[in-house]
């Protein structure tokens, strides 16, 4: 009897492996890990913004409307609670990504406007913040790219035979991913032009 049960268990193990069960386990873990990194980098960016805004406010003639839009966009982006369930809810996922996209646009506009203010461009503290922002935007791009690949692999397994049968049995559904426009933007993060000045303050 023990040999029979062992044989059955071995057969079931091989069957599950051949039908994509292990793929779902590994890709699901990859998705969780890569999404966690995306959130970490978004939070890193959000944490930089108050210091950037405070520094820019020191320029008395700076366009307040531009600053207000950044502050409001940050408030909207950080008000959405990024729970683990969010990546399984297309509506919540899209709402979260839309808010982050609006913040990216507001920051891009801010950096364009800054070019009109020599005092800010010459402010070493502000330059340091810009370098940090540029690095964070690059990290967001990398993290999002890894998330996209992980979700694509998972979703392919959900849709294709015979792993789709395993997906139906265990309740694995399609996970939302970045839209086509978002994926295209992965290669072009919000522009943070350092005006030819590197992190050390030396001109490139």
Description:
The chain is mostly helical and 204 residues long. It has a single domain (19-185), classed as LemA-like domain (de novo design (two linked rop proteins)). The protein has eight helices and no strands. The longest helix is centred in the first third of the chain and has 37 residues, at 21-57. Residues 4-17 and 183-204 have low confidence and may be disordered.
Topology of helices and strands:
Layout (H helix, E strand, L loop, with lengths): L1 H17 L2 H37 L6 H16 L10 H25 L3 H4 L2 H36 L3 H8 L9 H6 L19
Helix pairs in contact: 2-3, 2-6, 3-4
Could you list some keywords that capture this structure?
mainly alpha, 204 residues, de novo design (two linked rop proteins)
**Cα-based radius of gyration, to the nearest Å:** 23 Å
| Topology-level CATH name | de novo design (two linked rop proteins)
**Overall spatial form:** elongated
For the largest beta-sheet, the strand count, sense and barrel status come to: none
Secondary-structure element pattern, one letter each: HHHHHHHH
Helical stretch tally? 8
CATH superfamily: LemA-like domain
Roughly what percent helix? over 70%
Q: Determine and state the CATH class.
A: Mainly Alpha
Q: Could you say how many structural domains there are in total?
A: 1
Low-pLDDT windows of residues:
4-17, 183-204
Q: Which whole number gives the mean pLDDT? A: 81
Distance between the termini: 75 Å
What is the number of beta strands? 0
Structural class: mainly alpha
Give the CATH architecture.
Up-down Bundle
The portion of residues forming beta strands comes to: under 5%
